[in-house]
UniProtKB/TrEMBL annotation:
Transmembrane segment boundaries: none
Signal peptide: none
Species per Swiss-Prot/TrEMBL record: Sphaeroforma arctica JP610
Highest taxon of source: Eukaryota
UniProt-listed PANTHER family: ADENINE NUCLEOTIDE ALPHA HYDROLASES-LIKE SUPERFAMILY PROTEIN (PTHR31964), USPA DOMAIN-CONTAINING PROTEIN (PTHR31964:SF113)
Protein name in the entry: UspA domain-containing protein
Matching InterPro entries: Rossmann-like_a/b/a_fold, Universal_stress_UspA, UspA
Domain UspA: 19-152
Length: 159
């Protein structure tokens, strides 16, 4: 089976990172089997000209703002952690990084990679924000051609 994990990380929202890491950890414990193929997609919000080298390290051109470089450096650290976590369990994850709106990239990559399942966490936006913008997970449930597994922590409820 081929699984695409959507890894959400916004430096200002550590809870998003926690939920993504939780979804990955939950899947490793309850869902993944030996021989499964794993890819991790990371869509960074509104950064431009981000590239990834052969080692999975993200880079930005020198003329980008220092704060953007700091965010990318922090993101590199977290992505390296996720990659190492999968490798310790015997998986060789493929890493993909994009910049922009995750709602467009997740279904695109799920289709492009012929994923059997997309796995993602759920931040649980409040009612008004969700009504105006919709949620990434809700969008993916409707747009992905494969099943979407949304992992929520026990006790988490939507507002």
């Amino acid at each position: 089976m081929y699984f695409l994990f959507y890894f959400s990380f916004k430096p200002s929202l550590n809870t998003v990172l926690d939920l993504s890491l939780y979804a990955i950890q939950w899947s490793k414990t309850n869902f993944l089997r030996v021989g499964d193929q794993v890819s991790v997609l990371w869509v960074l919000p509104d950064y431009t000209d981000i590239e990834m080298d052969d080692n999975g390290v993200m880079t930005v051109p020198g003329d980008c703002a220092k704060s953007t470089k700091e965010k990318v450096d922090m993101a590199n650290t977290k992505m390296k952690q996720v990659k190492e976590d999968f490798e310790q369990l015997g998986y060789e994850p493929e890493l993909y990084v994009e910049s922009g709106d995750a709602r467009g990239f997740i279904p695109l990559y799920a289709d492009k990679l012929n994923a059997d399942t997309v796995v993602m966490g759920n931040r649980g936006n409040s009612g008004f924000r969700k009504m105006l913008l919709g949620s990434v997970s809700d969008h993916c449930v409707h747009e992905c051609k494969c099943p979407v597994l949304i992992v929520r922590r026990k006790g988490d409820t939507e507002s």
